[in-house]
Amino acid sequence: MTKTLTRSSDLDECRDNTHTCHRSYGLCTNTYGRFKCSCKKPGFEGNGFVCKDINECVRNTHDCRHPHAKCINTIGSFTCSCKTGFEQKDGGRDCKEIDICQKNAHKCHRHAMCVQTIGSYKCVCKIGYRSNGYSCIPIKICAEGLDDCSKYSTCTDLTQEGRYKCDCYFGFFGDGKTCTGSRGKRYILLFMKVLVDPTNSRLGMGQIYIVSENTTDVKISTSKLLTKSLKQSIDKKLSMSLNSGKVITISHSVRVNDAIVENKAVMVETSEVTSVFALNHDGYTSDSTLVLPIDRLGVKYVIPSTEPHNKQHSDYNSQLAFGAVHDQTRVMITLKLKRGSIFKYKGKIHRDGDKIIVTLNKYQTFQLSHNGDLTGTLITSSKPVAVFSGNRCNKLNRYGFCSHLVEQIPPMDSLDTTYIVPPHFKRSGTMVRVVSAQTGSTTFSYTTDKSNGTKTLGTFDNFDITVSGKQAVVVDSKRQVLVLSFGLAARRQKNGDPYMTMVPGVNQYVHQYHVPVPQGFEQNYFAIMVQKGSKSALLLDNDSISSKNTVSEASVTVKGQDYVVLTVMVNQGVHRVETKDRSRFGLMIYGHGHDDGYGFAANILGPGKL
Questions:
Q1: Per-domain boundaries in the chain
Q2: Identical topology for domains 13-54 and 112-180
Q3: EGF-like domain: from which residue to which, for each copy (predicted)?
Q4: How does pLDDT run across 56-113, given as a tens digit for each residue?
Q5: Side-chain half-sphere CA neighbours of 283 within 13 A
Q6: Residue range 476-493, pLDDT digits in tens
Q7: Can you tell me whether residue 518 is helix, strand or coil?
Q8: Are 421 and 485 in contact (CB under 8 A)?
Q9: Which homologous superfamily does the CATH classification assign to the domain defined by 112-180?
């Protein structure tokens, strides 16, 4: 806008401050006889008489470039500033993230980690601590039950917060998170049918041997469907002291019968970890077995037994039996029979490969026997079962008498590939049976003092190796196999008839055992398979093994490693066997009486998550 003067001389309204332009943001420009008004540039707009601030932030005409920079309007202009967590570059028009963690400008606890986020940070407590990161409280992993130790190990909180260690219990071997062994707290077992001689007033009995390192409470129970008198004779509660053994006698009436579902399983429960063994005595002969804890039972088993001495007499029958831990357990038996052999069940004829299916509830048992060898028969179940097999009474050579044969069978996923089979002292020899636990072909090699060989087995087939005297046998297979040892009766001797023993695999060895030697046998022995360099580390009841009690020693080599196989004479009672250097070794227990014998392994389970 322009104003005109009437007088002859020009007045400078701008200089005299007589203009009417906006006083704060207007600009006055003098002209002859007049003046002009405009708004200051940049930052203002208007006609000069009225000027207002331009908000560059609202109009987005600013040049604050970084996404984490913000525009702040000022009178006539703007400024750029960086958001929290960023620092300015180029007058604030660009922003650089501040690494608070790297600059140690955070407020995290000393046991927390600073984690950079966009424009900020967060605090996370280190492993072994918990809270919001600005304060951190140590976690006691073991005390709070947050560890991943095996249930068969001791968890110990270490002084360094959040750190802990797992140590397997006595009799187990492993890193503490996985512990291998055949000890436990809950067991289920049965007693198979034995030879019954009506002229013998001694009907025999079953015995359960329980061995405990610690003070423990024991409960023996049976099905509520068992006859009242039989149940009352078996069910009981008792206590055990430190490093002790207890023998519980079980009535012969609880033995299972053929081809019928019965309520005859016996449950053993202990408050502390124990080892359990069973012995079945028919009045003349015995055999024994290690009893496996319920939590290591499986759903797939291959059966071992022996060819009956006389097919015409059921007294020699091979037999298998199983007991259920849970209700509605469906068990399928896939028969392995020789060509031409038949098996009758419920009026129906079954042949090789045929299946028999039974359903059991908890505490129920089922047994089959046959006048042929049942070795290779497959047991599969919907839930874990305890499986036993052997022969009612059998003789494995021309002389001597028949003897009851029994072992509890480990599940197929616990079997090994490499075995050392010790000799049986004061026997005519040893029969070693190798059973394929695989479909298809399984090739294994075997080595004795006098020979070696290689054999290929078909699906669930078996092969026998018989050695005499004090020879040990090494079996090395490409695939998992089941290996059994049979102590053969000695000619013209009264020190026992055959007995059946599961052989532990080399990978099933542990470094500590707590075992019983049963009552009523004249000679008892430990067979120990240990690496040669650890022989001197062996301890029997906390003492070195006496040379005068070592009745035989053999040497074998397994995969380039030298082992010694010792036979040590021991007394009846509870024994602790271990190595000072924690080296693992195998242990089998056997013994002889007048026309009697027994044998069992101290561990037959491979590594498992427990």
A1: 13-54, 58-97, 112-180, 184-601
A2: yes
A3: 10-50, 53-96, 97-137, 138-180
A4: 899 888 888 767 888 899 998 988 888 877 888 776 678 888 888 988 989 999 999 9
A5: 15
A6: 999 999 999 998 876 655
A7: coil
A8: yes
A9: Laminin (2.10.25.10)
By the 8 A CB rule, do 209 and 516 touch?
Answer: yes
CA proximity to 426, closest of 394, 469, 473: 469
Tokens standing for residue 380: 């599969």
Task: Give the three-class secondary structure for 199.
Answer: coil
142: left (phi over 0), alpha (psi -120 to 50) or beta: alpha
**pTM listed for this prediction:** 0.80
- Ranges in the chain, pLDDT < 70: 1-8, 66, 91-92, 197-203, 399, 490-496, 607-610
CA distances from 281 to 323, 520, 603 (A): 20, 11, 22
CA distances from 550 to 366, 379, 568, 597 (A): 42, 40, 4, 20
Task: Identify the CATH number of the domain defined by range 58-97.
Answer: 2.10.25
The DSSP secondary structure of 267-298, one letter per residue, reads EEEEEEEEEEEEEEE-SS-EEEEEEPBGGG-E
Domain 13-54 architecture: Ribbon (2.10)
Rounded distance between C-alpha atoms, residue 273 and residue 432, angstroms: 32
Give dist(CA 567, CA 485) in Å, integer.
Answer: 15
Listed residue (541, 550, 475) closest to 514, CA to CA? 541
3-state class (DSSP) for residue 100: coil
Tokens of 32: 């002859």
Confidence (pLDDT) at 3: 47
Cα–Cα distance, 566 to 553 (Å, whole number): 5
Q: Which residue has the tokens 């005068």?
A: 548
Sequence-ordered list of residues with C-beta below 8 angstroms from that of 58, at least 6 positions apart, any chain? 73
Q: Where are the beta strands (DSSP E) in 66-145?
A: 69-74, 77-82, 86-89, 94-97, 112-117, 120-125, 129-130, 137-138
Bridge partner list, 172? none
18 neighbors 30 (Cβ within 8 angstroms): no
